[in-house]
Amino acid sequence: MHAFEVLLASDFTARSDRALGRAIQLAEEKQGKLVIAHVLEKSTEADEEDILRRLRVDLPEGAADAELIVRSGSVPKTLAAIAAERGSDLIVTGVARYNSIGDYFLGTAVDHIIRNAERPVLIVRRRPVAPYRRLVVATDLSDCSHAALLAAATLFPDADITLVHAFHVPYESWIKSADVKADIRAEAQEELDAFLAGIDPALLARVDAQLIEGETGSVILQELDQTGSNLLVLGTHGRSGFAHATIGSQAEGILPAVNVDVLMVRECK
After folding, report:
1. Of 6, 37, 130, 239, which sits most exposed with the smallest number of CB within 10 A?
2. Do residues 132 and 231 make contact, with C-beta atoms less than 8 angstroms apart?
3. What's this model's pTM, rounded to 2 decimal places?
4. How are beta strands 90-94 and 231-235 bridged, if at all?
């Protein structure tokens, strides 16, 4: 029987501590295995056995049994390759820095891993104080956002889920008719209902579906705050360009403002 495997991408700096703490918690929760991968730049010349010995000394008690992997090469490509080779169930990483959107997400090893890894990627921002009990899943009603919902529900079977679909009224400042706005909402509700009809009833019982008028980023932030959720789930592809919303222009408005962990589920094939 396959044991659940958490693969932590770590550079063993202080900023990796939060991701390490969450990876330990998840491995224990799943009664699974923790694997910690550390990638050396190609130009680095070092004795891998010596590095492994020194790294293990710094691990906390909860990670004493973790398997350590040290390889040389391109950080993002090597990490994605390790995950593929091992068939890891979840990849965990921290954020690069905490200032600009470029540092936070784009153009980093995290971005490459999300684009290339087959498994969900958990980006840890907060120090873990409790398991994920409430989470917000953003949806554009695509098959891929459906897959993201299923992945999150499977990974966190005890969590309550708020499913958020944001819609907007085009040219709202010009439209004065309440009837027109009502028609647009009704159409959005019909599409959401069709999406929910494709969800297994057992999962649907855990889902609180919210249809909210507004810009996607603002709606997500609002729901995270109102529900007290400690995890945001985003798919990376969808019919309306949700990949662009999560890894592109709208990310500049969403991700830096989100002060919770983010689970990214890669686009469908």
Report:
1. 130
2. yes
3. 0.86
4. unpaired
The β-bridge partners of 136 are 162, 232
**Dihedral sign of CA atoms 95, 241, 167, 195 in order:** negative
Q: Are strands 5-9 and 90-94 parallel, antiparallel or unpaired?
A: parallel
Phi-psi region of 57 (alpha: psi -120 to 50; beta: other; left: phi over 0): alpha
Task: Report the C-alpha gap between 59 and 66 in whole angstroms.
Answer: 9
- What's the CA gap between 146 and 191, in Å, rounded? 13
The amino acid occupying position 115 is R
Tell me the helix, strand and coil percentages in the chain, rounded to 5.
Answer: 40, 20, 35
Provide CB contacts within 8 A for 224, sequence distance 6+.
Answer: 136, 232, 258, 260
Span of 148-152, 206-210, 234-238 with lowest mean pLDDT: 234-238
Instruction: Work out the angle at residue 47's Cα, subtended by the Cα atoms of residues 46 and 49, and round it to the nearest 5 degrees.
Output: 140
